[in-house]
């Protein structure tokens, strides 16, 4: 009985070593470079859109609002076409961090659960991914604001 347990443990260890040899090693430098380039290009495109709005005569607050609206729309639109998901596979965090990634995180679950109906599918699942991010983002901003208020004076 003891001998069978040892053999089983040895086989498990051999299998784990075999699996570790076969798992592809991530290329961290390449992934970081892609994320940097794609995220930077999204931001450059956002700056370009902002410059267009500024040249149209909008003030700074209006430019920021209009640029954010256009970027969210484009992120949602490209997600609907399936383009943004392909971009995300290559760019990783470079496509998630900008505001376009927020649009993607809302539209993707909504599209996935559309077959369940507009109420229990689209509406109920829309914020599955973005909801926790919003909750913790708002919560941490309230905490930081309170700390600043009480400790900053």
Structural write-up:
This protein has helices at 2-22, 28-55, 60-81, 83-91, 93-96, 99-112, 118-125, 130-151. With 153 residues, the protein is mainly α. The protein has one domain (27-151). Helix 3 packs parallel to helix 6 and helix 6 (99-112) runs antiparallel to helix 7 (118-125). The mean pLDDT is 85.
Record keyword descriptors for this entry.
single chain, 153 residues, 84% helix
Number of helices: 8
Major β-sheet, in short?
Answer: none
The level of helicity is: over 70%
Count of folded domains: 1
Secondary-structure element string: HHHHHHHH
Structural class: mainly alpha
How many E strands? 0
The value of Rg in angstroms is 23 Å
Arithmetic mean of pLDDT: 85
Uncertain residue segments: none
Q: What shape does the CA trace take?
A: elongated
InterPro entries: MFS_trans_sf (IPR036259), Spore_V_AC (IPR014203), SpoVA (IPR005562)
Transmembrane segments: 32-53, 65-84, 91-107, 127-151
Protein name: SpoVA protein
Keywords: Membrane, Transmembrane, Transmembrane helix
């Amino acid at each position: 009985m003891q001998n069978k347990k040892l053999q089983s443990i040895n086989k498990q260890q051999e299998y784990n070593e075999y699996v570790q040899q076969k798992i592809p090693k991530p290329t961290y430098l390449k992934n970081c470079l892609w994320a940097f380039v794609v995220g930077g290009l999204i931001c450059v495109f956002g700056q370009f859109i902002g410059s267009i709005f500024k040249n149209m005569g909008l003030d700074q607050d209006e430019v920021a609002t209009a640029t954010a609206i256009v970027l969210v729309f484009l992120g949602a639109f490209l997600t609907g076409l399936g383009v943004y998901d392909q971009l995300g596979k290559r760019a990783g965090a470079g496509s998630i961090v900008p505001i376009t990634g927020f649009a993607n995180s809302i539209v993707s679950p909504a599209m996935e659960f559309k077959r369940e109906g507009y109420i229990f599918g689209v509406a109920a699942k829309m914020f599955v991914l973005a909801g926790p991010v919003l909750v913790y983002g708002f919560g941490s901003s309230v905490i930081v604001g309170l700390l600043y208020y009480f400790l900053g004076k």
